[in-house]
Amino acid sequence: MAWNEPGKDDKDPWKNKGGNNQGPPDLDDLLKDLGNKFGGVFGGKSSGGGGKSFSSVGIGLALVVAVLVYAFSGFYTIKEAEKGIVLRFGQFAGTVEPGLRWKWTFIDRIIPVDVQTTRDLPASGFMLTQDENVVRVEMQIQYRVVEPRDYVFSVTNADDSLSQSLDSALRYVVGHSRMDDVLTSGREQVRQAVWSELESIIERYSLGIIIVDVNFKDARPPEEVKDSFDDAIAAQEDEIRFIREAEAYAKGIEPRARGRVKRMEQEALAYKEQTVLDAQGAVARFEKILPEYQAAPEVTRQRLYIGTMEKVYSNTSKVMVDVDGGNNMMYLPLDKIIQQHSTQQRSVTIPNSTLNNTNTNPPSSPAISGRSDRFNSGRD
What we know:
This protein is α+β, with helices and mostly antiparallel strands. It has helices spanning 27-38, 48-73, 148-153, 158-175, 179-183, 187-205, 226-295, 297-314, 334-344, 352-356, 366-379; strands at residues 75-78, 82-88, 91-96, 99-102, 108-114, 119-128, 134-145, 209-220, 318-322, 329-333.
């Protein structure tokens, strides 16, 4: 039931004790009432003067408390990895460095921005290549905020704008590349191209962001043709491996061949020098013999013949002996005789009668025996 229902005047909350309905009490009267009640607490009296004193002291105390609360509410802290953007009445007023700071409460607003942490942003999807093949590419970039004001105010959401720019750059580069390059040998070129294209896009928007690194995580064909592409990639890897092995083999063979060529050149030069020196020695020897030959031709000729025969017989182990100045020749296999002497460890003596007997031949040589018989038959 409402308090102001007709006939219920005794429930009026604003009805005073005197019974006169005068409406809500005055605020000054209420404060004066409170001053009279608590005047003794502040050293005053419950008279009109005491109420006035209490009002001035209470207001002063309230102002002091309000000032202290306002002053303490203005302190804030900027972390070490952050920078603070100061907005005064909603307008940019500068940036503040890390540490304990103070601001005007209800006037300044502080927006902290992390400028040291490296953030990650992935991008992936199915894309169409230049040769009209579909490939799924996964890439991840790392970036950092370098200009807090541009990061907060240049666009509505810098992270979202960067994500859309990355997707646009990735699709542009993949769309201008062949599928084989994206999957195999051209991955590094694609990564560099995406990095360059992304930087050129975000430069126009002044996002206050710097790209630290771009990682090409994965690139694979659709599952329906994955096995065929795996075989093709394995074949390309084998080709590269064989090429590397061939290059290594060539690098190992070439130095050895060059060494052999150098050795042959040195041997040829040495042979040339030796031939020249031998020829010069022969010329010098001939020049020394010529005067002797001119002085005694027959003696010199005989001496040269004997010296030549000594050289010839010194290099052979077979001796042909003319028996009695006739036509019969006897062959002495000195090599067989020396070998038999070394194996039996005893001396072998050849008597003079053996030399005079043309019918006797060494038993170790059947061919020579036949020749001696032939010589003997002719002699008879």
